[in-house]
Every structure is written in structure tokens, then in C-alpha cells.
Amino acid sequence: MTSVEIDVLVVGAGPAGLFAAYYAGFRGLRVAVVDSLSEPGGQISAMYPEKMIFDVAGFPSVKGRELVGNLVAQAAPFDPVYLLGQPAQRLETVGTPGAGGGFLVSNDTGLSVHAKAVIITGGIGKFEPRPLAAARDFGGRGISYFVRDPTEYAGTDVVIVGGGDSAFDWADTLHGSARSVTLVHRRRAFRAHPATVDRARTAGIDIVVEAEVTGLHGVDRVEAVDIRSGEFGERTIPCQKVIAALGFTANLGPLLEWGIDVKNRRHIPVDSAMQTNVAGVFSAGDINDYPGKVRLIAVGFGEAATAVNNAAHFIDPSRPVFPGHSTDAAPEPVAAR
Ligand SMILES: Cc1cc2nc3c(=O)[nH]c(=O)nc-3n(C[C@H](O)[C@H](O)[C@H](O)COP(=O)(O)OP(=O)(O)OC[C@H]3O[C@@H](n4cnc5c(N)ncnc54)[C@H](O)[C@@H]3O)c2cc1C
Q1: What percent of the chain has pLDDT over 70?
Q2: Which of 16, 23, 149, 214 could serve as 300's disulfide partner, Cβ 3.0–4.6 Å?
Q3: Per-residue pLDDT, 108
Q4: pLDDT grade, residue 336 (50/70/90)?
Q5: Residue 157 shares a structural domain with residue 108
Q6: In a shared domain, residues 232 and 263
Q7: Which residues line ligand 1 (CB under 6 A)?
Q8: Which residues form the FAD/NAD(P)-binding domain (predicted)?
């Protein structure tokens, strides 16, 4: 049971949501960020943490993972409450939002957040990693869906399952520091970019095609995996870390039931204040929609600032929408107030 009382709840810890967390802190608001994923960063962390991004203002180029790290660091002085690994399933109105009331966001696993305003930065929806069937009984014991910290893999035998860009990016990142890296893919063709595949082959990464991981062994943690392939039949190899890079499913699912207008079951229409049709519920980033919308990280940042500043004014109409300039008011962490 997690119960939180907050000024602003941000639903979605992608780049737009993380910047909204910073901005809410800057406006002196207590903020929580909920995400169904166990990692902040949204699409960046789930799909391209090792890729360079070239169109974020002020960064000629920045690695996805570093951009997410910087966004988390930027919000950190304001101590946002991160509710990760928690889907936001329900939204209810409590009293009159904007006049002492607000919203209750909850889920079936005991999350309950009371907020005066809500900012939905849900991107393309609630992400869930596609599970590796053979690893069903090994959750958290040597099997992961993200590479959080590449140093954790140093000196270990790693098996990566998948044939997309993430699988190859991680193989590339870990090759050299891991004792061995074996990439297992069930088809002969890969979804990853051909140049990425060539780089992995040239680097000497062991790539097993038309194969699948059929079993995991180990007492407390994974110690070995069974691989079945058309080429060599069944084989058991030592392995202490399995990375299931099988992709993610994304689903707007619960948000469709929140009583908010949703266009084509994908996008939330907003006005120029980034407010939805429900007063006190704002939206920024890929999930929102208005004429001329462009779905880019840089655009989501601006929308997050607009949404938070209008939410601040909604919560307390005596506060101006314009926040002033950060250069005039160095961030004062919430804890110091
Ligand atoms: C391979 C690839 C490369 C890209 N390259 C670029 C690029 O170079 N430049 C660029 O500008 N953009 C790029 N993009 C697009 C960019 O990643 C998105 O525009 C950006 O991530 C949108 O950010 P967001 O915060 O709006 O949403 P997202 O990043 O999608 O984050 C939304 C978060 O909300 C969470 N969520 C949703 N619903 C719920 C719920 N009900 N409960 C809890 N959590 C929920 C999700 O789990 C997710 O973590 C790329 C995208 C991809 C896939």
C-alpha cells in the first residue's frame, strides 16, 4: 500500500514527465511521478538508451541514457517522489479541483495518490516488457529487461535474447567488459539496422540464430541457460545474466477510462495551456494533441513547462502562470523550504 499526498502528479516518467517534475519543483510544488516501468526515461530507456540524440536544444549530441540521467539530476534538488513499476489505473475527482479538491489516482496493487492537479505525460502508453517465457521463475534473479548499469555485467557470461536494435546495442556495450556475450535470436533475419549487426559480427559477438532460450538453471540466481537451435540442437551454456530484449508492448489502456477526451484511442486533445477537457488535468509530450503537433523530445519539454505553469496557476490562481526566470531565482529545493 503506497499512499501519497502531493500538489502535482505526473503520469509517465519519460522525458516530458521528468522535465515536468523539475518544473513543478521549481514552482514550489510537491511532485510525484508514476510510471509502470521500473526505470525513468520512457521510450528512451526502453528503446534506445545507447543511441545518440542530435535534436535536443543545447546538446549537439547526447546519448539517450545521459539525457535521462541529466533530467533526473535536474529534478533531484526538488526531491520528486518516484513511484516506479506502478501503473496508474484509475483517476477519480475528489471535491472541486481548483477549489480545495483534486484527484485520486490509484491502482490495484495499492497505489493511492491525492493530487491537486495531474499532468499526463504517458507517451504512447503504459509500457510493459515482453516476457521471456523460459525465465518465468527467475524474475529479478539474473534476468532483466533493461541494462541499468553496464558495470554490473563486467566479468559475467551474458545471454541477450532478441534481434532488435536494443539487443545489439546492449551486446555492443557489454562486449569487452563481460566475460562472454551470446546473442540468441529466433529468426535468421534481424530487426536491427544492418550496420549494427555487421558491427556486432565484426566485434566477434557470438550470435546464434534460429534459436531460442528454452530453460534457465540456478539455485538462487541464473547459472546456466539451455539454448535450442536448428544448427546444433540443445546446448547448455554458463550464464549469470540474461537480458530479455524482446521489445515492449505499449497500451493507453487505463487512461481511456479516465473520463478524458481521447482522440482515436491514442491522443489527448489539449488547449494552448496544455489542459485537457477536464479542468486540472493537463497533458504534455507525445500523448497530447493539437493542430500542428510535432512529436519530438524538444517539443515535449516546452509543453511540460507550459502544463506545469498553468497547473500552478490552476491550483492557486494568485500565482502567475509565468514562473519568472530561473536565472533570477536559483532553485530552492523543497526540503530547504
Ligand atoms: C527508436 C526511437 C528513436 C527516437 N529518436 C528521437 C530523436 O532522435 N529525437 C526526438 O526528439 N525524439 C526521438 N524519438 C521520440 C521520442 O523518444 C519521444 O518523442 C519521447 O520519448 C516522448 O516522450 P514522452 O515523455 O512524451 O513519452 P514517453 O517517452 O513515451 O514516456 C511515457 C511514459 O509514460 C508511462 N506510462 C504511460 N501510461 C502510463 C500509466 N497509465 N501508468 C504509468 N505509466 C504510464 C510509460 O511507461 C512511459 O515510460 C525516438 C523514438 C524512438 C522509438
Answers
A1: 97
A2: 16
A3: 95
A4: low
A5: no
A6: no
A7: 11-17, 34-37, 42-44, 47-48, 53, 55, 87-88, 121-127, 254-255, 285-287, 295-298, 300
A8: 7-298
For a mutational test of ligand 1's pocket, the pick from 9, 10, 44, i.e. the residue with the most ligand atoms closer than 8 A to its C-beta, is 44
> What residue owns the CA closest to ligand 1's atom 51?
43
Q: Are 11 and 119 in contact (CB under 8 A)?
A: yes
How far is the centre of ligand 1, averaged over its atoms, from the C-alpha of 73 (Å)? 19
CA 116 to chain centre: 24
Cα–ligand 1 centroid distance for 125 (angstroms): 9
| AA identity, residue 278 | V
90, 103: one domain: yes
Asked whether residue 113 falls in the same domain as residue 65, the answer is yes
Question: Cα of 28 to ligand 1 centre, how many Å?
Answer: 26
Measured in angstroms, how far is the CA atom of residue 259 from the centroid of ligand 1?
23
Question: Which of 190, 214, 244 is where one domain is finished?
Answer: 244
Rounded CA separation 181/160 (Å): 7
Whether residue 230 is found in the same domain as residue 256: no
How many domains is the chain built from?
Answer: 2
Query: CB within 8 A of 114, min separation 6: which ones?
Result: 4, 5, 6, 94, 102, 103, 104
Distance 26 CA to ligand 1 centre (A): 23
- Pair 172, 224 in one domain: yes
CA distance 113 to 10: 11
Q: Domain holding 70: CATH number?
A: 3.50.50.60
Could you count the other beta carbons within 10 Å of the beta carbon of residue 1?
6
Provide the pLDDT for residue 193. Answer: 87
Does 140 lie in the same domain as 105?
no
- pLDDT, one tens digit per residue, over 252-295 is 989 999 999 999 989 999 999 999 999 999 999 999 999 999 99
List the domain range (segments joined by +) for residue 97. 2-127+248-336
328 is in an annotated binding site: no
Q: Domain boundary residue among 176, 209, 244? A: 244
